[in-house]
Structure formats: C-alpha cells, structure tokens
Design goal:
With 460 residues, the chain is of the alpha+beta class. It is built from eight helices and twelve strands. It is rod-shaped, with a radius of gyration of 46 Å.
Length: 460
C-alpha cells in the first residue's frame, strides 16, 4: 500500500488554492485599509476641521479686540479667557518682537516648532508632569507682535492612535486568517490532488486496476475522480483488448513457426545435400520465434504479472552472476569484461526480470564492442536507490538517436549486421518501469553507457 507523503511548505506555497487565497487576502486587506481611510477622513478629518475652525474664530476675535482696545485691552481679554478655561484646554500667548511673553498661559514661546502657513504643533508640559500635543495658530498683530492661540488635541491624537492600531491589527488579522485559511484549504486540495497523483503513479507502474478514491462529498474533486475512473476503465478495456489481440497473434504465429522449424530440422537430417539452406531457414525461424517470445515477455511484464513475485533481492549478486556467465563469450570476442560492486545492492524486485535486463544490456555491450575493447559493469548503493551501470568502448550512438533506441524494433544502421530484433532495450525499459526505476542512456566517449536506478523500496 502506497504511503501518503506529507506536503512540504514549498509545495503548499506553490498550490493555486494558496496563491488565490493570498491574492484575495491582499485585495481584502486593501479594502480594509480603504475603509479605515474613509472612516479616518470622515471622523478625524471632521474633528480636525472643527478644531481648526474654532481656533480661527477665536484668533480672529482677539485680533478685533486688539484693533478696538489696543495692547492693554488685548492683554486683559487674554487674561479673562485664561481664567474662564477651567479645563486648561486652550492655549494663549501674546509675545513681543523678541518672543517674550506679554500675556497668556504659556511661559515661553514654543522652541523648535516650525510655523507652516501660520499653523504649528508642539508638545506642552502640564503641571502634573504629563505632556500633551497642542495645535496653534499664529497671527502677527501690531508692530512686531505675535498672537498664538491653540487647543489641546490629546483626544484627537489618541483617536488617531486607535485608528492606526485598528488598521494594523485589522489588516494583520485579515492576512493571518487568510494565511491559515489558505493553508487549510491548500492541505485539503493537495490531499485530494495527491490521491489522484498517487493513483496515476501506480497506474504508470503497471497497476491498471487502481482507481481514484471517491469520498462521496459530490464536490468538484469527486466529479473529477468519477470522470477519471470512467476514463481509466475505458483505457483498461482498450489495452486489455489490444493485449489480447497481440498475445493471440503471437501465440497463433509461434505455433506454426515452431512446427516449421521442427520440419526444417528433420529435412536437414534427411536431405544432407540441402542442409546449408535448410539450416539458414532454421536460423531465421529461430529469430522469428525469439522476436515473438520477446514480444510476449514484454507484454507480460507490462501487465504487472510479475509484481506478485517481487521479493528482497541483491542486484549486485544478480549482476555478478550474469557477468560470470558472459565472461567466456567476452573472451571469445577479445573483449575485457570487468565487474565492480562496493556492497550488496538490496532492492525489492523480481530476480528473473532483473537478470533478464542485465543480460540484455551485457549482451548488447559485448556484441557491439570491437576486439581489444572493454565492458564494465558496476553496482553502487545510493541513499534512495541502487544504481547498475553498463559501459563499453564500442562505437556509441548519435545523441539524437538515444530516445529512439528505447522503442520497439528500432535498430541503428550500424547495428544491422549483427543479429537482433530491436527489442532488447524495450524489454529493459519494461523491467525498469515495473520496478519504479529510471533508465539513463548516454555516450561514454568512447562507447555507450546505460544506467539503471532501482529504488530501495520496502515490500508494499
């Protein structure tokens, strides 16, 4: 039974569900900011305008008092207003040309405050030691005299801070909830997609009976699973029909070919004069039978019929046995055959199939390596797989033909003089696919190098 691998953080971030959630979260956060901006404008903006209007009216009234009563009258009016301000919220300062106070409730002119269009803001220290913000209006009166009228705007500042914190926490909460919601939705979506991908990998591995689980929720994933399962049923039915036709043809043709070969052998014995031609006919019949046998074997491998017999086997031991078997053939062709393995390569597979794959690779390597060349077989253990490599010093193949040579009945022009049917690498590919492995083909410069990676998988 296949195990479900937990999704990583990177895979979650790449899911379309998570990305769409973040996009909507950003849009919602922008909407929240716009909402707070509108509230700020209609509330704090209104209070700001109201405070400014109050200060403007008051300073205009004091300027009129100065014009009617002069300096002494303005000083008296300012003193009266300071006395009437029991909450100490208003600020008054009448100063001379040197900014020395003449009247008001400020001891000195605010230092370090810049006047912008007649307005300035500065902190004011109260008797209890606290500091409050003040907004004031400055008006020039008389000769080199200045009149400052302001208001304590602590409530406005506090309200601004409340709005700022609300905006920050509101947007933060929106993004946090969107992040959590995106992760949860992505996990749900990825779990369903992972089930589909796992089923697809099992089908690619040869288990055509696998189907996508249906939860019964009747959502879009269930609808997709139902349609995929219907498609897989149809594909399995078609493949089964094609396989049945191919097997039937191969079986039907192999029987008369076998009879033809046996008759030719009997003719060769009874008619020695024509034995040479008959022997050639026997060899051709053997080649045809080998082709049909290879086709039947590939079909059987691809059907997954061997997976029931998979067990824990030593790939290095299999490769060494095949090398020992082919060493005399390599010596006959004056080809040096080397085998090297660092340690046993334990894999879960079928010994017969793996031996067949190594046999095909080694047979091709020895066949196409010229006299004086060498063939090397290595088995190395890696963290996730065991790698078997077969390399030779033969002529190699053009890079553009690497993909083609893995197909059935494909033979290069340089290989046609040698006996064969073009099914060797196709069978190796079928064996590797059944073991969930990977096949690599590259030029060895000189020669040819083929690698097989079989995963270190435990028995399911």
């Amino acid at each position: 039974m296949s195990r479900t691998v937990p999704p990583s953080a990177g895979s979650l971030l790449r899911t379309s569900t998570f990305q769409l959630t973040l996009i909507y979260a950003v849009l919602f956060a922008v909407s929240v900011l716009l909402l707070f901006g509108a509230l700020y404008w209609f509330t704090l903006g209104s209070l700001n305008r109201q405070i400014n209007a109050t200060i403007e009216v008051e300073i205009s009234g004091l300027a009129e008092q100065f014009e009617r009563q002069g300096l002494r009258g303005l000083v008296d009016v300012v003193a009266q207003r300071v006395e009437r301000d029991t909450e100490h919220r208003s600020v008054y300062l009448f100063a001379d040309a040197n900014l020395e106070p003449l009247a008001g409730n400020l001891r000195r002119w605010p230092a370090g405050s810049e006047i912008t269009n007649g307005w300035l803001e500065f902190p004011r220290a109260l008797a209890d030691g606290s500091v409050v913000p003040v907004r004031a209006r400055v008006l020039a009166v008389g000769r080199n005299l200045r009149l400052l009228v302001g208001r304590d705007v602590r409530e406005l500042a506090q309200l601004e801070r409340v709005f700022e914190r609300a905006a920050v926490f509101g947007v933060g909460a929106v993004l946090l909830l969107a992040l959590v919601g995106g992760v949860l939705m992505s996990l749900t979506a990825q779990r369903r997609v992972s089930e589909i991908n796992r089923t697809a990998r099992q089908i690619i591995g040869g288990d055509l009976a696998r189907r996508v689980p249906v939860t019964g929720s009747r959502d879009e994933y269930d609808s997709l699973a139902v349609n995929i399962n219907a498609m897989l049923d149809q594909i399995e039915s078609l493949l089964e029909g094609v396989r049945h036709v191919g097997d039937s043809i191969a079986h039907d043709l192999r029987t008369p070919l076998t009879r033809l070969r046996n008759r030719l052998e009997r003719l060769a014995v009874s008619a020695p004069a024509d034995s040479t031609d008959i022997a050639r006919c026997v060899r051709e019949a053997d080649r045809l039978l080998a082709t049909f046998n290879a086709l039947l074997r590939i079909a059987r491998i691809e059907s997954g019929a061997y997976r029931a017999a998979f067990a824990d086997v030593d790939l290095a031991g299999i490769a060494q046995d095949v090398c020992d078997f082919y060493r005399p053939a390599a010596e006959d062709r004056s080809v040096a055959l080397y085998f090297r393995a660092t340690e046993p390569g334990r894999v879960f597979g079928d010994r017969e199939l793996l031996a067949q794959a190594v046999t095909n690779l080694l047979d091709n390597a020895i066949k196409y390596t010229p006299a004086g060349g060498q063939v090397e077989v290595t088995v190395a253990s890696e963290p996730q797989a065991c790698r078997l490599a077969v390399s030779d010093t033969g002529p190699g193949i053009p890079p553009e033909e690497i993909e083609n040579v893995q197909r059935r009945f494909v033979r290069l022009d340089s290989a046609r003089p040698e006996p064969g049917n073009g099914l060797g690498l196709a069978l190796v590919r079928a064996v590797v696919d059944q073991h969930r492995g990977s096949l690599g083909i590259e030029n060895n410069r000189p020669g040819f190098r083929i690698t097989i990676d079989i995963p270190r998988a435990a028995s399911p």
